[in-house]
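Researcher: Predict the fold of Coenzyme A biosynthesis bifunctional protein CoaBC.
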Amino acid sequence: MDRKRIIVGVAGGIAAYKACTLVRQLTEAGHDVRVLPTESALRFVGAATFEALSGHPVHTGVWDDVHEVPHVRIGQEADLVVVAPATADLLARAVAGRADDLLTATLLTARCPVMFAPAMHTEMWFHPATVDNVATLRRRGAVVLEPASGRLTGADSGAGRLPEAEEISTLAQLLLERGDALPYDLAGVKALVTAGGTREPIDPVRFIGNRSSGKQGYAMARVLAQRGAEVTLIAGNTAGLVDPAGVDVVHIGSAAQLRDAVSKHAPEAHVLVMAAAVADFRPVHAATSKIKKSSDPGEDAPTIDLTRTDDILAGSVRARNDGQLPNMRAIVGFAAETGDANGDVLFHARAKFRRKGCELLVVNAVGENRAFEVDNNDGWLLAADGSETALEHGSKTLMASRIVDAIVALLHNDGNG
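Model: Structure tokens for Coenzyme A biosynthesis bifunctional protein CoaBC follow.
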């Protein structure tokens, strides 16, 4: 990605220290980052820290370098503004159009995407004034992230925790890749997402698995949540990924556990996204103790009998068609394919799409450094109307946003959107 000019605004909350990691991540991604803290923010983190991390001087007021008109110029020249943390006070001042410091003045002059990452106590986040302010900012086109839940100041815990810096920087990169704001268009929609690979036990030590990292499924859950959906994420092996903010996460291990979790949560869902890499086979019997390797080199290795696992995607489509999922309006499948002597990737994907019966199928060509265990992805999106759309190469979060665009179009076209 080309070097972009990013403004990181920092409001005066205890989470201001996390902005240091955010600034470092954005600068290490190759961007020109300038920090605009409030006076209160500098009581938590000193100006020297932000200057060292960004390589730019730090000012809070409009009276420094007046000849350069910074209160206007900074916003005019920015490609993205990220405010993290955005306190309840900062959100209120942004809604009111205040311009009493350099940060709020920049918010008024910026014509690029603006993203707020709120951080405050739970009671403040759910107060009607804050709820109205967030709705107003979103209506005006700003992106206001859903906060995480967890430990707050002192012993308190709940919604209002600042999302991790990695998540904020990932969504910032998405806004730069998209070139526009992330719409808040899925309020009231319940989405169920599966992610990661399943592990089918052979014995207490060994398992049958696959190379799925869960990154694409986590990206789907993250984008759906930040566009307003109420998201439940069923996660298999996800290699220690950070749980997305604003998402309820259910951790599972095997294909059978994934099937049971989907069966439990799907009846309430409007959208099902089956991004998990489910093992096609499992051992018929899992040993209760470790299978020992014989000391006799001439002894044959043990034989493991396999049986098929349930096709959870096809089963969900059947359950919806049988009336067991009355709320379900869109089912999205994923297919990781390779070509062979019988046909190329799309040949096999089209056949799978016909068998599954879902509304959308995301197709990835897999191979060395492709699809699995990487941060970028590409592929195709097959739709029930017969269309086939190429998904351009980019971050998995960008791919997720394009898939969610298609989901939104489906929901709006089914007469209930």
